Amino acid sequence: MNPVYHDIESGSLPYTDGWGWSYRSFEWLAPSGHILRRVLCRYFYPNAVELWRRGLLYELLGVRLFGRVIPTGGILVRRLTKARMTPYTLSGTSLAAARAFYYRACVFESLHLPFLLTLIFLSLDRAANGRADLAIENTVVNLVANVYPVMHHRRTRMRIVRLLNRGRAPT
Predict the structure, then answer these.
(1) For residue 154, which of 110, 93, 120 has the smallest C-alpha distance?
(2) Which residue from 144, 142, 158 is spatially nearest to 101, judged by alpha carbons?
(3) Could you read off the pLDDT of 97-137 as tens digits, one per residue?
(4) CA contacts within 13 A on the Cβ side of 56
(5) How many domains does the chain divide into?
(6) Are 41 and 126 in contact (CB under 8 A)?
(7) Which domain range does residue 139 map to?
(8) Residue 78 lies in a domain
(9) Does the residue 92 lie in any domain?
(10) How far apart are CA 158 and CA 31, in angstroms?
């Protein structure tokens, strides 16, 4: 088993980073060793397609460009507003800071998922009822407000996993 994945699945969560409520909910819902925890950790951990050629898939889909202009932490937005946007930033150079940021990226993605699914069902319903114009509108909103942010968080976690793998001492 991948030691970084094992650390992420069974390690302690960073309760002090301001997102403690979500970590406590996760611990309550899926305690360490529970099958649901393994399933959720497997979902959030980057898969082989995402890791292929250092994230070429995300590069081809324009996720890196989207990440530069995303209102809640994009580089261009930060430069224009001079905002630090601390929750969306790796807070230090330690492996613990990288792990904490990995979990925050999971939380941020989790916040988008209900809206993403709702808009998918709404778009399908509107298309089935002959309202193609509204279905297209919902799909475009979903793409910008949910799909690309989810891919951005997945790309972020992929980069963090590469960093954590690089920081591990060979065994």
Answers:
(1) 110
(2) 158
(3) 888 889 999 999 999 999 999 999 999 999 999 999 999 99
(4) 4
(5) 1
(6) no
(7) 3-57+88-167
(8) no
(9) yes
(10) 24
- The contacts of residue 85 (CB under 8 Å, 6+ apart) are 72, 73, 78
What's at 76, amino acid-wise?
L
Contacts of 129 (CB under 8 A, 6+ apart): none
pLDDT tens readout for residues 64-93 = 888 887 776 677 777 777 776 777 778 778
* Helical ranges in the chain per DSSP H: 3-10, 20-29, 35-44, 48-51, 56-60, 63-69, 75-81, 95-128, 132-142, 148-167
Q: How far is CA 115 from CA 59, 78, 110, 141, 143, in A?
A: 24, 25, 10, 11, 11
| Residue 62 belongs to some domain of the structure | no
Q: What is the CB-side half-sphere exposure of residue 99 using CA atoms within 13 A?
A: 20
How many Å apart are CA 92 and CA 79, to the nearest integer? Answer: 20
In a domain, 65, yes or no: no
- 59, 61, 67, 68 alpha-carbon torsion, rounded to 10°: 80
